[in-house]
Amino acid sequence: MGHKSDIKLIVDGKRTDGRTVDQCREVTMEVNVIPAADGSAKVGFGSTVALASVYGPRELFPRFMQESDTGILRTRYNMAPFSVDDRKKPGQDRRSQEISKVMKHALEPVLFLQEFPKVTVDAFAEVIQADGSTRVTGINAVSLALVAAGIPMSHMVTAVSVGKADGELVTDLNGKEDNFGEADMGFAMVHDTGEVTLLQMDGELTLDEIKKLLDMAQTACGQILEKQKKALRDFYVKRGE
Amino acid sequence: MGHKSDIKLIVDGKRTDGRTVDQCREVTMEVNVIPAADGSAKVGFGSTVALASVYGPRELFPRFMQESDTGILRTRYNMAPFSVDDRKKPGQDRRSQEISKVMKHALEPVLFLQEFPKVTVDAFAEVIQADGSTRVTGINAVSLALVAAGIPMSHMVTAVSVGKADGELVTDLNGKEDNFGEADMGFAMVHDTGEVTLLQMDGELTLDEIKKLLDMAQTACGQILEKQKKALRDFYVKRGE
Amino acid sequence: MGHKSDIKLIVDGKRTDGRTVDQCREVTMEVNVIPAADGSAKVGFGSTVALASVYGPRELFPRFMQESDTGILRTRYNMAPFSVDDRKKPGQDRRSQEISKVMKHALEPVLFLQEFPKVTVDAFAEVIQADGSTRVTGINAVSLALVAAGIPMSHMVTAVSVGKADGELVTDLNGKEDNFGEADMGFAMVHDTGEVTLLQMDGELTLDEIKKLLDMAQTACGQILEKQKKALRDFYVKRGE
Amino acid sequence: MQEKYALELINKGMRVDGRKLLEFREIELKTNVINKAEGSAYVKMGETQVIVGVKMNMGTPYADSMGEGVLMCGAEFTPMSSPDFESGPPSPESIELARVVDRGIRESHCIDVGKLVIDEKNVWVVNVDIHIINHDGNLMDASALGAIAALKTTKIPRVDLEKMEIVRNDYVADLPVVHTPINVSVCKVGSNVVLDPTKLEEGSIDSRISISVREDDKICALQKQGSKGIMIGEIPGMMELAMEKSRELRKLLE
Amino acid sequence: MQEKYALELINKGMRVDGRKLLEFREIELKTNVINKAEGSAYVKMGETQVIVGVKMNMGTPYADSMGEGVLMCGAEFTPMSSPDFESGPPSPESIELARVVDRGIRESHCIDVGKLVIDEKNVWVVNVDIHIINHDGNLMDASALGAIAALKTTKIPRVDLEKMEIVRNDYVADLPVVHTPINVSVCKVGSNVVLDPTKLEEGSIDSRISISVREDDKICALQKQGSKGIMIGEIPGMMELAMEKSRELRKLLE
Amino acid sequence: MQEKYALELINKGMRVDGRKLLEFREIELKTNVINKAEGSAYVKMGETQVIVGVKMNMGTPYADSMGEGVLMCGAEFTPMSSPDFESGPPSPESIELARVVDRGIRESHCIDVGKLVIDEKNVWVVNVDIHIINHDGNLMDASALGAIAALKTTKIPRVDLEKMEIVRNDYVADLPVVHTPINVSVCKVGSNVVLDPTKLEEGSIDSRISISVREDDKICALQKQGSKGIMIGEIPGMMELAMEKSRELRKLLE
């Protein structure tokens, strides 16, 4: 947030990519793109693209890592080396380890892990093009992949980023807004119940601004949830053929 | 040892911090400073300060690391990043791994590990301010922490550094003497029995000088042992309140 | 392969070390040089020298790494830090990991691992002087060490390098030919049966050249096999004394 | 057993140590506790103990932030501080702790990094290292408090520009700290909101939001933790609570 | 069971998916699929899916290759692509894959590295990263195909020589790719020769030779894999087969 | 069983191989055994075999030791040398071995590091690498002997000052080795003092002191090992023994 820059992020109410402040980029969703996985999905928000795959429930090895009274969800968020301007060294850095952890917490609330003692569900999100909002794109993809894998879930989890750029509150930050804006909030929720499962923010915001951003995020999640549902319907229809 | 320097370490029989050659810096000892631990202590020699904590005896996992016929003592010596002039990168380097090993050997002789098969006693020493003699400060702290944890021990272990600076034999080296002196000897013993449990030296010494240093070290250990005992008495008195 | 260079590798049919194109350097072989091992050998091709030792069959720990239906062969190819002009950092790099893997495949075909479930045979090759052809030198050494360890084997494995330098096809590349030549082929075979167990090449070759190199490699392996057999005979004779 | 008892008490609006649900434990704050560090602080929050040391080093600026000093924040969960911690590479928990404290400092712009330039090529690197001494819960708030306290006492050493060497113990200025962010982690236990949980109580937490608040009531960093969700309508109230409590904690720094 | 069935079919000259033994699966090849990469390709070979991205960075040449750009090739077997892969350091298999693809590119001299000089000290570093998306066998051929396809579409960005910075998305030239190596892995299953095995079929492979062939029929890299040997007399025939098939695959790049 | 028998013999003043308690095994010492190294030695002490190679490289001096060359000492317990060693990161034992040998060389000032300056910025880095070939006990004495033997035969290669490149195999001087430290490890087994134990005998050692002695009888490094203590009154006698034995071993270097 807040790198010095002369870049104007909003001109005449239009963002650098022509959107209005509360508009998401084009959202693309496709389920079952990775046949080896038990469930998978590909999600794009503009030119940010993430793949997700889910394996499990499967027995966890070595055995001393198993939990006797509950199943566990393991998550891994990763960025491909070529997904960013300056090549990212392969392997997990501190940022991706933190995101893997919050991604886990974003999804656990909808799983019935207690009913699967000793097993693991493994969820992987791989960012192949990064242009802001990568973690929420990844969460949307993993959420779809979990459903496609047939993992019992109470609800879908839907995620979006909101934030502040050039003094305006905006939905679905692109890379420039992420780098040069004033605040960035990662947000995930169970839209049907109102439960927030991911909330991260950095920047400078008043309480009022945060309240407005929560509203904008909830509204956007409602729209995105419809796209998740459509992607699943398309998948089941196709599979049923 | 022996970095080139114009620094005079002893002038008119006085050391850079005003001490005589056979004088320890002010020794501070406090037992039970880390409530989460089974036993703990804080020891200072002048501005060198080490914390120690002990956990155990506890079962060792994973099981294939257990020894069926004896318990084991695991030790870890570590320096906080901010304990030295130029920030130390976190994590164990070769020096701290070696010191962890000699610290283990310095303490094992007084433990009855054979009586605790399959378990581990874990002892940690953390240097938070370094001004010479850090490993012996750490051993004194761990020794107190082991007693406070109720680990069965035949005796206390007491440690001190001795060495040579500006041609004089000295007790309890400070950082300057450690860096610019002619020899540095780390020493630990069971003062009640005369058993030496740590002996490391680097520098240039004659046999006679080593004999004298061993005498000086033994004398200093006698004094330090009294402080260890007092710290334990204070702790038990306080706990008895 | 193919670093730019003004070095002439072949002049008047003679190579930089005076050899003809199809001549191996002096081959030295000695069995049982490392008493701690179950079997061991030292093999030199000119100034390239590799040691090998074999331990096993022995039970594999931790147990979850065991295979219930077969034994496994583990191999490690390593270069000593002082074996090359510019000191090699200790530890396995990507090159030595790859070579360890192809070395494993080069030797597995002659072992009866299915008859030793749950156990491991560990084979180590250590290059102490490197002047080209290090991996094949290591394979020859490990092959001898396996026999000396009494590991059941159907045949010996014999290895050699062939390649192209200054436009000529050559046998047993030295360091200069390896660095500045046009192609380098690592080759291992069971000479008695004609089975090829290692085949790696990089460079630029026509199919005809490859056919000729395969012939040259087979011929050289026949000669080297005799030396392997002699080394084993010498060892058994000596042991029988 | 004990953990269940702690939960039962919270459900009745009470706590094992007699505190109210929204009450912090007693806080002891000492600064300049590490003589080798350019800034340092010791925080004792109940039985939770944290040392934060700040080391000033020379380095090169980031390519996208020329003309600015560099902040780096690390945390070590030393195995000495809890029976649950182990030696080894940094755990995800210690990484998260360091990154959340880092964001609280960075995003509040509390350090005027534009003043940390040494010469054309070199800037000050401000290394904030958090050392957990005893873990009895609420490490996030204790660490963040220690970090800002340590920064506020940090001095900039003199640089010998000929040798390009830092002259330790010869200070020329205070670190320019222009804001005072305070982190308050607001926890949900069932329908109750709880502050400053002990380690025993942390076993019952459903979720929490760590909220970093500046002295002008700007919120600079948020991090939700825990494996349960929080109703969206509850979040603004949690923020207000954090803003209120942050004023209380900030007084400790004056 | 399934694996055994695949083997039985191969022994009869047939395959689970109805292909002939020497037939490749359908190949879908797309280029310019990653907008942040200077070159990229997506290869779908049956159900095997690979993305290859090429990033152009500035660096220093190797001491023994002054005046030449640098090629680096990496491969990640992401745990997402197969139930058998795990997180952690690169596996020996992924290292071998990267190194074999690297040799195919390097030894064929397909990139004119002498043209990749920026100034006296700096050259272009061509980073080829192979990302396995779905593993259904024959990763080597799919990856090598993706690599050469990505290189052939790679553009060289402009360098701001005053700031010595790369200006992304402002391209001044194509990467000079002067040859087109194609990798064909020829597999032995019992006495049969098989191409392009699925993952299921790979369980039955005795051995294979990965063969990199240039458009002038020069062979640039060989790598035998698998734990069984191959009769020396069979090898030339396997090479001829690879040469023939490489022409077929090379057409996909035109 | 065997180990117990070795102990019983020692208690009677005898040894499995017929030696006296204070007798070393036969020592074979060869130098210049590695043609790629600037100095090297092979030590065979009974069945213990060690190769030490010295590589001379260019580097920058330490900030606190400008105008001096750099010594670095490493040891690898290759898994080939003992059934007990495993692949992986350096073990604490190999680190201790390297550090004790390092201190014996460094603290004896046997290398005149002031003469290892190349130009204003560059000095020689003397890399001493200890490679254990066969482990049959007393690695410390064998390694230290190999290290000083290798250093005494080390030659300094020419530097092409225009290209700032080392010209290998073109030597301009001997490494300035001005002292000859010898390491003698004096072992305690019950009430007995034993020298040069085999690996079998090492199982019975209560403790040992590794003592590095210079030709002028100065003691330069001490390291007590083992999990039992040593009576303080016994230590001077152990040093005297080490001094005496060091003279005997030093003759091997002449």
Give a description of the structure.
The complex is a heterohexamer, with three copies of chain A (241 residues) and three copies of chain D (254 residues). Helices cover 29% and strands 32% of the residues of chain A. Chain A has 241 residues and is α+β, with helices and mostly antiparallel strands. In chain A, strand 4 (39-45) and strand 5 (48-59) form a beta hairpin. In chain A, helix 1 (94-107) crosses helix 2 (134-148). Chain A is globular and about 55 Å long. The mean pLDDT of chain A is 93. Chain D has 254 residues and is α+β, with helices and mostly antiparallel strands. Chain D has one domain (2-14, 22-253): Ribosomal Protein S5, domain 2, CATH 3.30.230. Chain D is 24% helix and 34% strand. Chain D has a five-stranded mixed sheet. Chain D has a four-stranded antiparallel sheet with strand order 9-8-10-11. Chain D is elongated, with a radius of gyration of 19 Å. The mean pLDDT of chain D is 95. The chains are: A alpha+beta (241), D alpha+beta (254).
Summarize the entry for a quick read.
The complex is a heterohexamer, with three copies of chain A (241 residues) and three copies of chain D (254 residues). Chain A has 241 residues and is an alpha+beta fold.
Keywords summarizing the entry:
heterohexamer, A: 241 residues, alpha+beta, Ribosomal Protein S5, domain 2, five-stranded mixed sheet, four-stranded antiparallel sheet, globular, D: 254 residues, 12 strands, 24% helix, elongated
The tally of domains of chain A stands at 1
> Nearest-angstrom radius of gyration of chain A?
18 Å
CATH architectural type of chain A = 2-Layer Sandwich
The amount of beta strand of chain D, in percent, is: 25-35%
Structural class by SSE content of chain D: alpha+beta
In helices, the fraction of residues of chain A equals: 25-40%
Task: List the uncertain runs of chain A.
Answer: none
General form of chain D: elongated
The overall pLDDT of chain A, averaged over residues, is 93
